[in-house]
UniProtKB/TrEMBL annotation:
It comes from the Bacteria. SUPFAM superfamilies: (Trans)glycosidases. Residues 418-437 are annotated as: Disordered. InterPro entries: GH, Glyco_hydro_1, Glycosyl_Hydrolase_39. This is Family 1 glycosylhydrolase. It comes from Massilia terrae. Pfam families: Glyco_hydro_1. Gene3D superfamilies: Glycosidases.
Length: 437
């Protein structure tokens, strides 16, 4: 079996469209991964990591219904398999192929499920998936903010995007499980909080704080509160569509991934407008809110901070986030992993990918020349120090990962055993439950 505690990084593969669909923002291209993919995988191993968040470029791979170009995925995933790296596969990261259009397309869920099945059948050794990354953020930035993809600014477009994205995620999980019964799904979702600036802003802040849970409520089959139910029905969701989510609960196959950045907390004004609040509560407090709502094993699936003028800002943030992870875990939450995102610096995230400026952002463990940053050195040391300690603290918190090498050597008995165990108790770790709250 693989590592009990998951230390990971990711290779940034966002690919939304901007300028009304005319420009594709391909972070794999901007960050040089198509050219340096072998070097990037070397760097993952240099850090001592065994797990990588990674996915093929959906817009280059998925050419049409049942039409695929697997060339790049074949060479990269075969290399990852040879290296015995466990991959958490991002199948859809903020964008869809041009022929789909955008997330308003009602055919997207079924079409995406077919793509997910095709991937799982081609790479059956892959066990870990994030079918659709940051479902809430993807819908929010594409509709209410109007930054990406459909670039709309209406509640109806938002509800449409959410229901299509989450349904696609659920259908993908279903078909992947048909191919690999012991598949595990790590939802990478932004953990948000909205602070009222004054008493008049309490009502708008409550609306924002209810809406932040919408994607995960639907994904995990949890009944939304009455305000969100009215909001969804007022903006185009039907009762039958809502009941699809209540009746297709796969949460016992899931780890709840919480992403946290300094930009995840917001001030809300009386008119409902928001602005960044910086870190107020922090990861531990907000993660407890999400855990208390869903009662699932947790993984810190994304964080970073720009390396500032002192050169130590990112290192200090890493230590702060890690302290928050330990606090959450020591408080009894089954927290099973941590991720610095991403491996290398990113490009144009200073404008949230809204502008195609080619501006490097010093957010990575390595810069775009593949030279290690101070935070990379600090993360390598953190991983080395803690990797052998955490799994021994609680056998119950070990994630049943089957590494590629074990799959290659013949793990039919392991898969069958895992399948039997999951069918019997349908739990992943203490705290998991299927009940609707």
């Amino acid at each position: 079996m693989g590592p009990g505690f998951i230390f990971a990084t990711g290779i940034e593969n966002s690919n939304p469209t901007i300028q009304n669909g005319r420009v594709r923002v391909d972070e794999l291209e901007k960050c040089g991964h198509y050219r340096y993919w072998r070097t990037d995988f070397d760097l993952v191993q240099e850090l001592g990591l065994k797990t990588l968040r990674y996915g093929p470029p959906i817009h280059k791979t998925w050419l049409g219904p049942n039409r695929y170009d697997w060339e790049f995925a074949d060479i990269t995933f075969q290399d990852l398999r040879r290296r015995n790296l466990a991959v958490i596969v991002d199948l859809c990261h903020f964008g869809v192929p041009d022929w789909i259009g955008n997330f308003q397309n009602p055919d997207f869920p079924e079409l995406f499920a077919a793509y997910a099945r095709a991937f799982a059948e081609r790479f059956p050794w892959v066990q870990l998936y994030t079918p659709i990354n940051e479902m809430f953020v993807c819908a929010l930035f594409s509709t209410l903010y109007g930054w990406w993809n459909e670039q709309d600014r209406t509640d109806r477009a938002f509800v449409n995007a959410v229901k299509h994205i989450v349904k696609a995620n659920i259908l993908a999980m279903q078909v992947i499980l048909e191919v690999r019964a012991d598949a595990l799904f790590i939802q990478s979702e932004s953990s948000e909080y909205y602070h009222a600036e004054n008493p008049q802003a309490i009502g708008p802040a409550e609306i924002h704080n209810a809406r932040r849970f919408l994607s995960l409520d639907l994904n995990y089959g949890r009944r939304v509160d009455s305000g969100m139910y009215e909001y969804m029905l007022d903006n185009g969701m039907t009762r039958d569509e809502y009941h699809f989510f209540l009746n297709n609960n796969l949460k016992h196959h899931c780890i709840m991934g919480n992403d946290y950045y300094k930009t995840n907390e917001h001030y809300v004004s009386a008119d409902g407008a928001t602005r960044s609040a910086g870190e107020i509560f922090g990861y531990a407090v907000i993660t407890h809110q999400y855990y208390n709502r869903y009662r699932l094993p947790v993984m810190h699936t994304e964080t970073n901070l720009c390396e500032g003028p002192s050169g130590n800002e990112a290192v200090e943030w890493l230590h702060k986030e890690w302290a928050n992870v330990l606090r959450v875990r020591n408080n009894g939450v089954p927290l099973v992993g941590f991720t610095w995102y991403s491996l290398t610096d990113q490009v144009d995230w200073d404008t949230a990918l809204r502008e195609n400026n080619g501006t490097p952002n010093a957010l990575g463990l390595f810069d775009l020349n593949r030279s290690i940053r101070a935070v990379g050195l600090a993360y390598r040391e953190l991983v080395h120090s803690w990797m052998q300690v955490l799994p021994t603290q609680s056998v119950c918190l070990q994630v049943p990962i089957i590494m590629p090498k074990e799959y290659d050597e013949g793990c039919d008995e392991l898969v069958a055993s895992s399948r039997h165990t999951r069918a019997d108790d349908q739990t992943l770790a203490p705290g998991t439950t299927e009940t609707n709250e």
